[in-house]
Amino acid sequence: MKTALLIKEIYLEGFRNLGNYIVQKYFKAFAWFSFIMFFVVLYAFIFRVYTGFAFD
User: Fold this and answer.
1) How many Å apart are CA 16 and CA 44, to the nearest integer?
2) Left (φ > 0), alpha (ψ -120 to 50) or beta: where does 52 sit?
3) Are the CB atoms for 15 and 24 separated by under 8 Å?
4) What is the pTM of this model?
5) Cα dihedral 47/52/55/56 (nearest 10)
6) What is the pLDDT of residues 6-54, one digit of tens each?
7) Torsion of CA 38, 26, 10, 5, to 10 degrees
8) Which contacts qualify for 39-48: CB closer than 8 Å, 24 or more apart?
9) Rounded CA gap, 22 and 3, in Å?
10) CA 48 – CA 54 distance, rounded (Å)
11) How many CA atoms lie within 13 A of 38 on its CB side?
12) Measured between alpha carbons, how far is 40 from 5 in angstroms, rounded to an integer?
């Protein structure tokens, strides 16, 4: 739980003092897109390992 709170604080601190509204929204959207893509890749890897895919 401590790690999740630390990640949340880093996320909030990273966007706190950005000046331009458009830049701030762009980077927030890009961060969420990156998180989602990471979890898609993690899901695909776990699925391949679980189904016995041969990584040759």
Assistant:
1) 33
2) left
3) yes
4) 0.59
5) -160
6) 988 888 887 777 677 777 788 889 999 999 999 999 999 999 999 988 7
7) -60
8) none
9) 29
10) 8
11) 6
12) 23
Residue identified by tokens 């950005």 is 18
| Encoded tokens for 28 | 């927030």
Q: Mind giving me the DSSP string for 12-42?
A: HHHHHT---HHHHHHHHHHHHHHHHHHHHHH
DSSP letter (8 states) at residue 10: H
Which residue reads 């699925």 in tokens? 47
